[in-house]
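sorry for the late reply, my laptop died twice this morning and i had to redo everyting from scratch. anyway the thing you sent over, i finally got around to it. pasting the sequence first so we're on the same page, its 324 residues, then the predicted structure underneath. double check i copied it right bc i was rushing
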Amino acid sequence: MTEESRRAVEEMRILVVDDSRLSRNLIGKFLLKAGFNNIVVAESAAEAFGILGLDNPADDPQEIDLILMDIIMKDMDGIEATRRIKQNERLRNIPIVMVTGSEKNETFEEAFTAGAGDYISKPIDKMELRMRVSSALKLKRETDLRKKRERELELLSSLDGLIGIANRRVLDSTLEKEWKLAQRNSRPISLMMIDIDYFKQYNDHYGHQGGDYCLKKVGRAINGVPGRPGDLVARYGGDEFAVVLPDTGASSARALAQLIQTTVAKLELPHEKSKIGAFVTVSIGLATSMLNEIKSDSLEALFKRADTALFNVKKAGRNQVMTA
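ok and here's the structure:
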């Protein structure tokens, strides 16, 4: 273990749950001497649940990395407390080491079935305590780092590599999910297809680096307009973007489309090869499936209407919003 890893492990937070003050003090003393300085104590399962936010997560629960749980306690024994903790999705990855004076195999079997990962026998040997705690915390840290890497990889796989907004894969899955919700709840849904005007000419004139710069600026500007958590801006491909607007009717969607146009125009990206102005502009095709038609409509039809509206904008001279 590197020095950095060792320090990280020693700073991890340990919760000691024991109804005996003598045992709590002894375990705390051994842990401090072993270099573990972040210790929280509870004298009952109920107090431990409060620290963990088991029954009320809104109470700002503490982040705990390891639990040392006494098996024999008055109000609720350690096995039942472990079972309760492991049933909670938010807490189930916290390792639990049982502390016990029992030598019965059935007790160990019950503890492991409940979710304990290890045990320490009483009377506690400080060297054994240090080794088992170090091992459990090291494994917890490795698990946390692996999950963090997995989340980062998942995020990267969902983003467009150039612009950093949602990619086509996320667009397709989000559209399908939101369409089903709209149908189930009889709510409107709107879809925008957005195209950068005369982008081929822009790319030819300013080069691929210039084209990439334009895509980044425009894509991120569009991404900053829709403000609700359920809205999605994605790169559809090339110089096209899509915006999914759940629970949004035609008039609200049109107002948002016009705001996107204004936002892009304010970038004032020079476009010497545009036939409609000195700066980069966008064309937007918009389609909405309304309350009275959502049940009989289809996602494919909605998509086709938005695409047709975009095609009509281009025919009409670009730099406009058209609704199918």
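The radius of gyration is 29 Å.
thats about all i looked at so far, will dig more tmrw
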